[in-house]
Design goal:
Layout: E1 2-6, H1 25-29, H2 39-48, E2 52-56, H3 63-72, E3 79-81, H4 83-88
Parallel strand pairs: 1-2, 2-3
């Protein structure tokens, strides 16, 4: 099954909305964003069950920066749809 998750206010907070996974200061300096606590475990479980994980956002974040953030946490992304792709399609 393909499962999509929105980024803003779902996996990535817009402030102090919810607890986040730990991220080093160096990673923050490199642009790694904090993600919602529990995301790593959830994504791992879903992928172990054979699901494909997608990210959807209406932000103009580059696909590269989104992949880099989730790779930092050990999460594989199967597809990313950002606002650039939304407008193109």
């Amino acid at each position: 099954m393909n499962i999509s998750f929105d980024l803003d206010s779902t996996l990535i907070p817009n402030g102090k909305e919810f607890e986040t996974e730990k991220v080093s200061r160096f990673a923050k300096f490199l642009g790694i964003e904090e993600i919602r606590k529990g995301t790593v475990a959830l994504m791992s479980d879903l992928q172990l069950q054979g699901h494909l994980i997608h990210r959807y956002t209406t932000s103009f974040r580059s696909k590269r920066s989104i992949k880099r953030t989730f790779r930092y946490y050990g999460i594989t992304i199967n597809r990313i749809v950002n606002e650039t792709e939304n407008r193109r399609v």
